[in-house]
Amino acid sequence: MIMAMCLCLSQTTMGQEKSGRKKVAVVLSGGGAKGMAHIGVLKVLERAGIPIDIITGTSMGSIIGGLYACGNRAEKLDSIVRAQDWTYVLSDKDDLSHQSLHEREKQNTYVITLSLNLGKKPSDVGGGIIFGKNINTLFNALTKPYNDSIDFSRLPIPFACVATNIIDNTEYVFHSGVLSVAMRASMSIPGAFSPVRMGDMLLVDGGLRNNYPADIAREMGADYIIGVTLQGKGKTADEIVSTGAVISQIVDVNCKNKYEDNVAITDIPIRVNTTGYGTASFNAAAIDTLIRRGEETAMQHWDELVALREKLGIKPGQRTRILINRKPLVQVERHKIGELRFVNMTESDETFIRRKFRLREGDSIDNNRADLITTSMRLDLFYKTAGFRIEDNGATLADGSKAAKVIFTAGEKKTNQVGVGVRFDNEEMVALQTNASIPLHTKQPMELDFTLRLGKRIMARADWAFHPVNFHRPTASYVFRHNDINIYEFGDKSYNLTYNQHTVQLAPFKFNVRNFDISIAAEWNFYDFRNLLMDQLPEHQRNLPDNMHTISYIGQVNYNSEDEWFFPRRGARFFARYSYITDNFVKMKDHTGIREYSAMWRMSFGMGKHFTLQPMLYGRMLFGENPPFIVSNIIGGEWFGHYVEQQQPFVGIGHVEQAWDKFVAAQLKGQINLTQNNIILLKVAAGQNADEIKDLLDHSTMLGGSVGYFYNTMFGPLGATLSYCNLNKKPDFFINLGFVF
Predict the structure, then answer these.
(1) pTM of the model
(2) Residue 317 — left, alpha, or beta (φ > 0 → left; ψ -120 to 50 → alpha)?
(3) SS3 for 234?
(4) Handedness of CA 310, 315, 316, 321 (dihedral sign)
(5) I need a surface site. Which of 101, 252, 369, 586 has the fewest CB within 10 A?
(6) pLDDT tens-digit series, residues 591-607
(7) How far apart are the first and last CA of the chain?
(8) Model confidence at 17, in pLDDT bands (50, 70, 90)?
(9) What percent of the chain lies above the pLDDT cut of 90?
(10) What is the DSSP string of 691-712?
(11) Selection from 461, 410, 358, 378 nearest residue 109 by Cα
């Protein structure tokens, strides 16, 4: 009987070296970003040849422990944590690569985005600043192929982690379930992350009850325990000065529960010094230091580790691959769909997704396509959260391949989304922009979008967008603008023009998906000129223009594959527009209509770790008889269309100047990333403008150069630029604080 049990145990562990060898457990404590030190400790355990038969953890310890239990060695974990954009992971932002250009612009405009339920009771579990959408996606990807509900003893290393049920303040130990869900629950810091609901339980960070679960490892059969703790000295009242510090202190104080008792049963306690780092220290430098500190601290216990190895009967120099008792399952990148399920979605929404992405049983799917589908669930169907899980359903398809069960799960529907953005600069001083998106939960999804901008320039906009099954997105818009604009000539202010502009645009064809935005539209503009102020020069004297209207036909292509909105290090951006401008649907003042051609192309080339080179070509040309002043070329400023729609930026011209009908320019930008967020920009530009293309080279070349420093923050770029251009022969100093709108 005993031999049979031993044989069964040997078969269950699939390769454990000796059925009689005593079991070693590694226990990893919580600590947020400080838990990166666990990776350094695991590197040393591998180096020492210590077998790991059990692993338990809490919070960040559950994440590192769970990924290690899946079969990832310490070096792989090192690569994984360094490869993440933690600013993105620890947020609920949508992946830029899966967003439309319209949504990307919104994400890089509004500092605050809120949902207004207007009296409706939300069904999703809240209670945290972060829902955890991106963390869930990351955990699902990293724990492949263990995405089914499984017994954690069947992992390559048997595993358990701890969460806290805040309904009755009890400890909940995950020995089974969906591994990614267990890890997510264990690290749900109260107030920062939304709890995880399981039945009647609401689960948050396990550190509140058991931050160092050595007792769980002992219950799982551990004979020897190696433990890693990250707790430092307690904070004083003077050190707790922020919301994050308050939350961290609450967690740290509660983490002392059971701590001393569990340390007492640990054979080799490894206490890593994490002084100077906190739970949110996820920047690259901090991760590097914490991993190194974990490794250095573990090396101080080298003699104890060697002694333990000898107790286990592992000879010096013996090559062991003992960290993984079982080989991890093969990770399949593409899956054949055997079963397709949609959870918490209406029948019409399910039909929408199936038709849009042509989903059928028997087709193939991978994580990238599944991510694209969940993005569509959020952006097209207005779900607050959306996720997916790919499981083995145990069936075999006709071609002999293994079938997968693909499950898409939706949260509650969005109600009204409100965004708020604010910016400062030394030209306009302060500007505020708000946006409200109202999804209409009709059979074919529709959305109303309202935007209001307050400042020197006032803008009010209303958009109606229709989301058919394909990537086509017809749109109707109305825009009111009040512009108070100074126009310069060779650096001196010549005019101040105040006018109102009313715009109605119908875009029956608007193709909007990922990096592309292609549209064909008809547009009506009415210009109500209110006031014109001039300097004293005789040649600048003119009358206030008559009110006028234009009817335009527009074709436009916008492409953007850049990895960052403001400071890209790779990718390309391309814009091209053709407009035919009339005042009677056919002609302009009894002549052929005005033709507008404008284009911009730029590429970003990363050259080493800290330097990016970005060449750009751009220009705008008008053809036709006497183009109206209001559509003429305007150059200057930092951004395209910043003060007026047709504005073309030029280095060194801080304000805006009227240019001739044909304008072309080239710019070369060098971007130096001193650190991840500290950036120096160097620009040089050359431009030509004339009334006719043949005369472009007959005029002197405009030359400009600038140097700027920026700090990239969650509120937008903060920085200043000093520039000079030979057109106005004056240095220009520009300060920008916040996103551009």
Answers:
(1) 0.69
(2) left
(3) coil
(4) negative
(5) 586
(6) 999 999 999 999 999 98
(7) 77
(8) very low
(9) 46
(10) SSGGGGGGSPPEEEEEEEEEEE
(11) 461
How many Å apart are CA 88 and CA 569, to the nearest integer?
A: 17
Bridge partner list, 638: none
Contact predicate 277/286, CB 8 Å: yes
In angstroms, rounded to a whole number, what is the distance separating the alpha carbons of residues 438 and 448? 5
To 10 degrees, what angle do helices 37-48 and 74-83 make? 160
Distances in whole angstroms, Cα of residue 136 to Cα of each of 64, 94, 486: 15, 13, 50
The label of the residue with tokens 């120096």 reads 680
At 270, is the secondary structure helix, strand, or coil? strand
8 A C-beta contact, residue 464 and residue 456: no
DSSP H helical ranges for 312-416 = 347-356, 367-379
- Per the CB < 8 A criterion, the answer to whether 439 and 450 are in contact is no
Beta strands in 426-547 (DSSP E): 429-440, 446-454, 458-466, 475-489, 492-513, 516-534
Q: Each residue of 261-286: pLDDT tens digit?
A: 899 999 999 999 998 888 888 888 89
Q: H/E element holding 298?
A: helix 284-299
Record the tokens describing residue 203, joined without a space.
Answer: 């689960």
Between CA 66 and CA 213 the distance in angstroms is 14
Look at residues 597, 585, 602, 517 and name the one whose alpha carbon lies nearest to residue 549: 585
Helix, strand or coil, per DSSP, at residue 185:
helix
pLDDT-derived band at 512, boundaries 50, 70, 90 = confident
Mapped onto helix, strand or coil, the DSSP state of residue 131 is: coil
More confidently predicted of 28 and 89 = 28
Amino acid at 579: S
CA distance 347 to 343: 10
Tokens read off for 117: 């339920």
Query: Which of 258, 335, 268 has its CA nearest to residue 302?
Result: 268
Q: How far apart are CA 159 and CA 165, in angstroms?
A: 20
Cβ-Cβ contacts under 8 Å for 515 (sequence gap 6 or more): 101, 559, 560, 561
H helix count then E strand count, the chain: 16, 38
> How many other β-carbons are positioned within 10 Å of the β-carbon of residue 75?
12
Beta strands in 564-661 (DSSP E): 571-582, 587-588, 591-592, 594-606, 611-623, 634-635, 647-648, 656-658
Task: Look up residue 327 and give its DSSP letter.
Answer: P
In this predicted model, what pLDDT tens digit does every residue of 350-378 receive, in sequence order?
Answer: 888 888 888 887 788 887 788 788 878 88
The β-bridge partners of 48 are none
CA 389 to each of CA 138, 146, 198: distance values in angstroms, whole numbers, following the listed order: 12, 10, 17
Place of tokens 């970005």: 614
Give me the sign of the Cα torsion angle 41, 43, 49, 54: positive
Q: Which of 656, 660, 592, 650 is nearest to 621 (CA)?
A: 660
Q: From CA 414, how far away is CA 399, in angstroms rounded?
A: 41
Structure tokens at 722: 């000093």
Q: Cis peptide before 145, with omega less than 30 degrees from 0?
A: yes
In whole angstroms, what is the distance from residue 177 CA to residue 184 CA?
12
Round to whole Å and give the CA distance between 589 and 554. Answer: 19
CB atoms within 10 A of CB 587: 14
Residue 429 pLDDT grade (very low, low, confident, very high; cuts 50, 70, 90): confident
Do 534 and 542 meet the contact criterion of CB atoms below 8 Å apart? Answer: yes
Give the pLDDT score at 199: 85
Are 27 and 159 within 8 A, CB to CB? no
Helix (H) / strand (E) containing 176: strand 176-177
User: Considering only CA atoms, which of 35, 24, 73 is closest in space to residue 211?
Assistant: 35
